[in-house]
Structure prediction request, 190 residues.
Amino acid sequence: MLRRLALTAVVSLAALATAVPASTASGSPSSGAVPSAVPTTGPFAAARPSLGPLPLPLPPLPGFLDGGEGKGTGEADEVLTRLTVSVENTGVAGADGTFELECGPTGGSHPRGQAACDRLAEAGTTRAGRQELFRPTPEGTMCTMIHGGDATARIVGTWEGRAVDTTASRRDGCEIARWNSLVPVLPDVR
Prediction:
């Protein structure tokens, strides 16, 4: 990347060096010294304009085409969200078990697949949502000592192309809030 920036700077200076003297040569002689576009000191002082056409711009890198996700234009669309959700001890009929969730298109055995995909898509639209959705509560965080039940869950797979492997519980206020932010991916046990 640094090489590309340096090359762009040198080419830009070379283009200016050839264009500026030609356009200022017809200026009035009474205006004084005309500043030069060719650097006399610094790392680009050795760069002299060459005769001939400027090189063609470099083609864009595939990672730049979709916001840095690394998916090029020629690749086929594929499911970027595929999660396995395992839930235990919720006390809610039908909520315990292991469910598969696929988004784009919605599929799998998750009982609320479309709603879960919509929630994941909503969280993915904000930077904070992308960073916080599956992140565990940091060590040392002060949380209320409210016990929300014995429910536990593990979520493994990929979300928007990123690896996910996290657990959730309802052991304190922070974990309850985290669980609730993942509803309907996780069952609502309030």
Remarks:
- The longest helix spans residues 2-24.
- Helices lie at 2-24, 113-124, 127-132, 173-181.
